[in-house]
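Quick one before lunch.
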Amino acid sequence: MSTMFQPKKERFNNPLIKNMCEYQDLVAEFENDFEGTWAKFADEKIDWFKPYNKVLDESEAPFYKWFSGGEMNVAHQCIDRHLETKKNKAAIIFEGDNGDQKILTYRELAYEVNKTANLFKGQFNIKKGDRVVIYMPMIPEAAVTMLACAKIGAIHSVVFGGFSSEALRDRIVDAEASLVVTADGAFRKGKPYMLKPIVDKALEHDCECVKNVCIVERNGEDIHWEAGRDYSYNELIKSQSPKCEAEPMESEDPLFLLYTSGSTGKPKGVQHSSAGYILWAQMTMEWVFDIQENDTYWCTADVGWITGHTYIVYGPLAAGATTVMFEGVPTFPDAGRCWKMVEEYQINQFYTAPTAIRLLHKMGENEPDKYDLSSLRILGTVGEPIDPPAWKWYYEKIGGSNCSIVDTYWQTETGGHIVSPLPAATPIKPASATFPLPGIIAEIIEEDGTPTEVGEKGFMCVTKPWPSMIRNIWNDPERFKKSYFGDCKKDGQPVYFTGDGAMMEEDGYITITGRTDDVINVSGHRMGTAEVEAAIKKHDNVASVAVVGKPHPIKGEGIFAYVVLKSVPMAHGDDIADELETMKEINAVIKTEIGAIALCDAMIFVPDLPKTRSGKIMRRILRSLAKGEEITQDTSTLEDPSIVDTIASKM
Ligand code: WTA
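Model of the WTA complex:
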């Protein structure tokens, strides 16, 4: 599909970037005066308590500093500064799994955030710079807790509710958090599920740093209360004052940590700043989603991922928008749930992942016909490349061929979108994230920094720093430098490597081709193969293992494991039953170590792995085998080239 889709100009009243000329002008403005242009936006968008004295400090590159000396507060930027003009506007519209609703106006949100901030300060002694782990379902209190941390300068680390107690403990310990905020549980597909027992298990050992657990009671199920440690949010919040001064934060003070997968077993605590992060969250919200005063915007992500941080909580609220939060799943009670909600709330911007689009297409091709979706103006996708059939269904069935699709490319580390169409300006090519946003100096290069030829695959890089970029890996500056900045320099500055491959067409359109490292993308969730391998190795009978991604019709990629066992299992005396039993056990280990999101879609037992003489596993071969491709790679460097045929015969 190389057809070009022109934006429907008549659907945009007053977009910030109206056409490609305006886009080019803005790109040129950044090129001609990089710091001056960023300063212009920082002055216009941020409500500074104290002005900054330097736009960009590169003296300790790649540890860049933006807007040094300035003071502001992200919660003030997202809530308090709007109270004069928007106090009665809906800030958060919540819909529960069972259809229950709650709307918080900006004034109500301010009260809730302030009460929570006072609770954290007073009851739990949380101070500026302390770490708070948030392990919560998709309920408004999750956003309120994040903003309360921001208000008092505590650094939050949200852990996705699908992670296991082991994964939660690792993150608590790495951040040395003193408070965990959680819920008894929540509702999914009409039934209660639990979170608090997972926190209890995580805190069983090695978590002396945690002094308190604050529990939001959502589903009312019975939970264990540890005396002196566990407190009910619902009870304590009643007596808190709704007034709380915002803590003045230096621009570079960390706002949050968010752990993400890399190419080694240990997740990295991606550290974001206050001013630079919120500036770009707000700017991209306004540019890419064309947020207008009366719009209702819905992003279906979970607050446990970066998309939930930037485009459910911080971006929309900084832009003064109305953001929808949904507790449930898109397929309950049926595959029309999202479209029903679009009709009911008159959603104008809908933002989701290609995996959800594929699932909803498969489960309910004609469900959208039952609802009035004409309020929609912009449809967004994120998390993985979108395939043409999913794009077409999204465009035609959901958008009525009358919406702009914004295929937004970015990462946990970039803080916000970096390559994306502008809905009123950019002619769209399906499956292309189109052009870098103004201010993002992106290039596709070879490892040594030379630009790739048109149509050639290269590394997607950003060659100049930008305000919302990752600042550090918590407690591991060396890993930060090593993971993102190779030896490659451009104009004397280190180049940021995204880890993704990309390709540019003659007319400048960029297509993201997927990860170039050992990270796979399962249902839009980033998963380190090393992390899954480390979990599998915890099974007593596993000698070695290699995990690769395998194309999956709904998930994008599925997890495929090649496992070498120490001894052949013989519990049943029946090969198939024994193998199935061991697979089940291995998946149970994964569930305990990481969570159900990392379960293997397929697993085979092999006598050995294809290794070079120096012991390096040739993953490329395993990837090709998993895809069912012919092996074209040179196998002569393998210690035992015959192993490739042996494995192939087992597939
Ligand atoms: C992938 C999610 C193609 C990419 C915001 C990236 C995409 C990883 C797109 C980051 C897109 C994200 N097209 N691939 N529009 N958006 N990706 O950190 O591989 O959870 O590196 O952030 O998702 O995943 P993360």
